[in-house]
């Protein structure tokens, strides 16, 4: 399978590697070295149309299989992902720059999702529901929605595609998938893996390309559900364009301006460890990464000293080395955005505590001069509802320390003062504070005495407020890719109605 890639590689449509309509190609680059990994054809609207048509014609036969037969294809993928975790983890690291343990964890998360979806094929898929009428049997049944368009981000280039596609396929839908333009090689490898299962032609289709191909998927009248994980900007566009189309559903999961609350009753070792993991793992490029640390004033100095010391020393470098903590950012434009927010923080009058935006002399590893490097940027600032850098998502190793006074209610008020609501954590030894956070923090993923990253696939994954709608991720995706039928069967020869409704038919003679 494609360890060595050159290309230009094609789209996978209707069971064939297919040349696209257009001339344009694009490159995949290793963000740690700048090296070109390979070339890919860039899809046009016509290519997307062909893929959607293939998915549509494959649907009737695919949905007619049993759940268990559909899941058999997924079990093959599960074993492949498991057996090749190290190899695939390295591909992930080379293409998106996450350090190698994260590259492998991406693949592990993918096979966990596949395992969940395939295992779920043998689990109950509806409910037996009581009726007011003893002679009626009522059930909730699920049906596949049809053709599902999956648009996935670069930062989890193996796990998130399977968040979208594993349950979707087992439920009997067919798929048109567009991976992020930054990670087409991971897309290619996944498509080759799915091809090797001999899944029926057209059930799974891969389109390589940019946002215009994503829009063509979203706009296609033959797409029944759009699953999107990515930026808030694009997600909101998709949600509003699909919102006007009653036959179609969109489940979108976007970013966050996630926080950790460290209370007066925090265990400081747990606080510092959780904060460092949440802010700097994946070089701050998880949608669940923490960019605000809200710390009680009585513990502030102690926390700040320890956090700053680690932020100054945390290793940034070659992501293939086991002792690297942070790899590069994904691409030059993104580095510009992160550096722009670091500058904005200064303009907004914060106190800068650590600024490793430009790595120091000797920090860039040999042979990695063309990498997209930026280290931690840490500042402190009193809470100010008008400050942009503590409200807008940066998606990088940019983090603000915000002291608070009073009780946990005051911290949660600051915590909730953002348009986003994806992930958050509280560090405290006091269960009342923990429970207050659990009940009042406006987030879809909440943690206590843990980092706010690292969710497991068997939990729902998604946000509230501007962070998303409809859970395109992990187990809860089932809601977006199935329709429910409320099915009622009468076992009697008499028609009897619920709610005391008369079933008598009156005529003039009565
Ligand atoms: C993302 O942040 O973009 O919870 C996905 C986590 C991972 C998934 C993160 N399981 O950190």
End-to-end Cα distance, whole Å, is 79 Å
- Unreliably modeled segments: none
Spatial arrangement of strands, main beta sheet: 14-15-16-13-12-17-18
* CATH architecture name of the largest domain: 3-Layer(aba) Sandwich
CATH class category of the largest domain: Alpha Beta
Strand content: 15-25%
Give the % helix: 25-40%
The number of distinct helices, counting runs of at least 4 residues, comes to 14
Q: What's the CATH superfamily of the largest domain, by name?
A: Aldehyde Dehydrogenase, Chain A, domain 1
Largest sheet: 7 strands, mixed
- Structurally, how many domains make up the residues? 2
Structure summarized in a few sentences:
The chain is α/β, with parallel strands linked by helices and 510 residues long. The chain has helices spanning 45-64, 67-83, 85-96, 100-120, 159-170, 184-195, 211-219, 232-243, 268-280, 297-313, 332-347, 408-416, 431-440, 478-481, and strands at residues 11-13, 16-18, 25-29, 36-41, 127-129, 136-144, 147-151, 174-178, 204-206, 225-229, 249-253, 258-262, 290-296, 351-355, 377-380, 398-404, 423-427, 445-448, 460-461, 468-469, 473-474, 482-490.
Question: Characteristics of this structure?
Answer:
22 strands, 20% strand, Aldehyde Dehydrogenase, Chain A, domain 2, binds 2-aminohexanedioic acid, Aldehyde Dehydrogenase, Chain A, domain 1, alpha/beta, six-stranded mixed sheet, single chain, 510 residues
């Amino acid at each position: 399978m494609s360890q060595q890639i050159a290309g230009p590689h094609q789209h996978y449509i209707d069971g064939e590697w297919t040349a696209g309509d257009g001339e344009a190609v694009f490159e995949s680059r290793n963000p740690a070295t700048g090296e070109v990994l390979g070339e890919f054809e860039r899809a046009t609207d016509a290519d997307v149309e062909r893929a959607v048509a293939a998915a549509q014609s494959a649907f009737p036969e695919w949905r007619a299989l049993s759940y268990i037969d559909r899941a058999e294809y997924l079990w093959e993928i599960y074993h492949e992902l498991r057996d090749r975790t190290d190899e695939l983890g390295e591909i992930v690291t080379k293409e998106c720059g996450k350090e190698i343990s994260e590259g492998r964890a991406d693949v592990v998360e993918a096979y966990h999702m596949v395992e969940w979806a395939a295992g779920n094929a043998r689990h109950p898929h509806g409910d037996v529901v009581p009726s007011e009428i003893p002679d009626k049997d009522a059930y909730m049944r699920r049906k596949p929605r049809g053709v599902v368009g999956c648009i996935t981000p670069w930062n989890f280039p193996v796990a998130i595609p399977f968040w979208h596609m594993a349950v979707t396929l087992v439920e009997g839908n067919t798929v048109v998938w567009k991976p992020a333009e930054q990670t087409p090689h991971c897309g290619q490898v996944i498509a080759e893996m799915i091809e090797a299962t001999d899944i029926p032609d057209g059930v799974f289709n891969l389109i390589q390309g940019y946002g215009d191909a994503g829009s063509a998927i979203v706009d296609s009248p033959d797409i029944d559900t759009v699953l999107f994980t990515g930026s808030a900007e694009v997600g909101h566009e998709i949600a509003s364009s699909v919102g006007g189309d009653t036959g179609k559903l969109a489940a979108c999961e976007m970013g966050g301006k996630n926080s950790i609350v460290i209370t007066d009753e925090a265990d400081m070792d747990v606080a510092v460890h959780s904060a460092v993991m949440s802010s700097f793992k994946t070089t701050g490029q998880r949608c669940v990464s923490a960019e605000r640390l809200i710390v009680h004033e009585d513990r502030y100095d102690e926390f700040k000293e320890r956090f700053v010391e680690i932020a100054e020393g945390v290793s940034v470098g070659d992501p293939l080395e086991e002792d690297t903590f942070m790899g590069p950012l994904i691409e030059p434009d993104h580095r510009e955005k992160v550096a722009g927010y670091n500058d904005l923080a200064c303009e907004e009058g914060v106190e800068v505590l650590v600024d490793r935006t430009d790595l120091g002399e000797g920090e860039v590893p040999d042979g990695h001069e063309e990498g997209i490097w930026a280290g931690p940027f840490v500042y402190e600032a009193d809470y100010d509802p008008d400050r942009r850098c503590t409200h807008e998502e940066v998606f990088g190793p940019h983090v603000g320390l915000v002291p608070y006074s009073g009780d946990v209610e005051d911290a949660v008020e600051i915590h909730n003062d953002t348009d986003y609501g994806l992930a958050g954590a509280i560090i405290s030894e006091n269960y009342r504070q923990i429970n207050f956070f659990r009940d009042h923090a406006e987030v879809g993923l909440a943690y206590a005495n843990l980092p706010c990253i690292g969710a497991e696939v068997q939990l729902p994954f998604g946000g509230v407020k501007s962070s998303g709608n409809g859970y395109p991720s992990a187990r809860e995706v089932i809601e977006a890719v199935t329709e429910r039928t409320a099915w009622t069967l009468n076992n009697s020869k008499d028609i009897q109605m619920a709610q005391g409704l008369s079933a008598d038919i009156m005529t003039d003679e009565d």
